[in-house]
Amino acid sequence: MSVLVNKNSRVIVQGFTGSEGSFHAGQMIEYGTNVVGGVTPAKGGTEHLGRPVFNTVKEAVEKTGADVSIIFVPPAFAADAIMEAVDAGIKVVITITEGIPVKDMMTAKKYLQSKGGVTLIGPNCPGVITPGEAKVGIMPGFVFKKGRIGIVSKSGTLTYEAADQIVKAGLGISTAIGIGGDPIIGTPTKDAVELLMNDPETDAIVMIGEIGGNYEPVAARWIKDSGNKKPVVGFIAGQTAPPGRRMGHAGAIIGGADDTAAAKMKIMRECGITVVESPAEIGETMVKVLAGKK
Fold this sequence. Notes:
Residues 4-100 form the CoA-binding domain. The chain is of the alpha/beta class.
């Protein structure tokens, strides 16, 4: 079993023939991901990267049996692309696009929730990878080696850093989920952590957050309330960020006392999570935690 994507996932690429879609689809195919086609309006009936191109997601699903979509569509059209994927019956929608207007995302998320049974990862995320099986995203696949540590992260770069450390520490990754850094995303930290908590092939979890919002405290309290079933190592980026200034991601802005890195780290520790001060400590700390030496 794996989380969200695996060797049996049938993946389509929305925005398939654009420059970003082409590059990353090529990387995904090279990795071994089962990319079964792509969607670019008005280019249906052609072929790209050795895969068929369709005009609509509905047609792509009917012809290929796709169940996962990755979106490389410009921000102005990305929310419509999400809703089109949901309409077509796609169960996992991974949106790489950054900077989708908040109002558009509010509409798309409400629509997605009304349909039920769909998982949206992102927007503004690096995607999801189950090492050795499927890479549906923009992450460097060579960093990730198969193992039993799950990763949930708001930061793409720190996802890769954590994976590299976990692998170099002699462990490996079950599934890594980059949830995205925009103000409105489909799968908050708690929901992604819950997926990994329920995955029998995941023994422990790395949870990487950042300033702004309440995703990490909500996840931490859920972890405690559910009995701390698996060890969690946590890190919060933005420890030196001043209040009121956005740092990198659109959602990374301190709006109140509970949004700071210090406040989040305190809550996480109180909930039984092993919190590291620096991302450089993630790998060695996970080894110690698994050995029972917190």
